[in-house]
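Hi F.,

I've been meaning to write this up properly since the lab meeting, where we talked about keeping a consistent format for the predictions we share between groups. The idea is simple: the sequence comes first, exactly as it goes in, then the structure tokens exactly as they come out, then a line or two of notes. No screenshots and no reformatting. I'm using this chain as the first example so we have something concrete to point to.
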Amino acid sequence: MDIFNNFRSDKGPLGKYAEKAEGYFIFPKLEGPLGNRMIFRDREVIMWSINNYLGLANHPEVRKADTKASEEWGLAYPMGARMMSGQTQYHEQLEKELAEFVNKESSYVVNFGYQGIVSAIDALVGRKDVIVYDSESHACIVDGVRLHMGKRFAFHHNDMESLENNLKRAMKITEKTGGGILVISEGVFGMRGDQGNLKEIVKLKEKYPFRLLVDDAHGFGTLGKTGAGAGEEQGVQDEIDIYFSTFAKSMASIGAFFAGEKDVIQFLQYNMRSQMFAKSLPLPLVLGNLKRLELLRTKPDLKEKLWENVNYLQSGLKAKGLDIGNTNSCVTPVYMKGSVEEATHLVRDLRENHRVFCSIVIYPVVPKGMILLRLIPTTVHTKEDIDLSLEAFEQISDKLKKGVYREAEFAEV
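Output, unedited:
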């Protein structure tokens, strides 16, 4: 049998929509400068679908730093993996400043968030060890867990009773194998927008011997007094054994980092295969990230403005009777009930008639019958952007309830 026949007959739960959805609902082309307004299909839209929390993507100081670094160094330098020929003083400087910012002893910069977390999980645990992770964990965590050759258990999302039950199961195994336990959660869950219950998780360290890895991609730069993330926000940063975040959210860049005790970070440096055998992060990105981190530290008004917009948007949605779940972060989900077909008509209305662009999430990412529209507010959004969007959401919600979008066919693009 030809292995390609497997996907020619079954393109997957999302792939089956490719011919009808590609270019509009899936793989849409967004043009123009990154910001609160962008161009979609030759028309301006209010943009709620890019991770640019602090507005750094087009910040003049960032653009200047990126341009200068590219002109001076080019995109190739340094060549080779960091272990062999790709180390620079600027990589080390970025790691030193990141560690200080998140109050950890040491840090390690990696090329990408997704491959970084996958590779770190693979490096940290062996056959004798057990992983216990939140069931709502991001796909990168799930993929990392799948590489584990030992036992792994998922606990119900943010459910401490479920976590404790699974810790008991894990201990029964490690008492026989002599292994350890790694608990994995997130600072902010990217779809729901709720913070991981880190404060309650670390309390369980008093009863169970485990180490805690936290993926704080959406919390870094947006939560906590200084912006150091969900651990700082909840007062438990010191109890997070391995802190991880990406530069792709609040810093609007490329790359990621791990932070923790020096010996743990050194172990990752020497054992993460995705970094040992990968070209070093290009210097323009490293220097650009140094500038972004400087702005995170020195311009608290960026985060203050972000939260002003977040609170205005989220309170406005709730005031109009829309369901935004239990979010306590910048991530703003809007939950509605309807079919996939209704979702496509709703989104076309939102984009074509209201000029509002946000991400649409349907089954299998969320349960059947649910439509999730996710908004990412930023520092650069205006009150007018928010007011227009609130009006649009109120109207599409009303139409959905009245059955206006109840069409038999997937909306044509």
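Notes:
The longest strand covers residues 181-186.
The CA atoms of residues 359 and 374 lie 5 Å apart.

If this format works for you, I'll send the rest the same way.

G.
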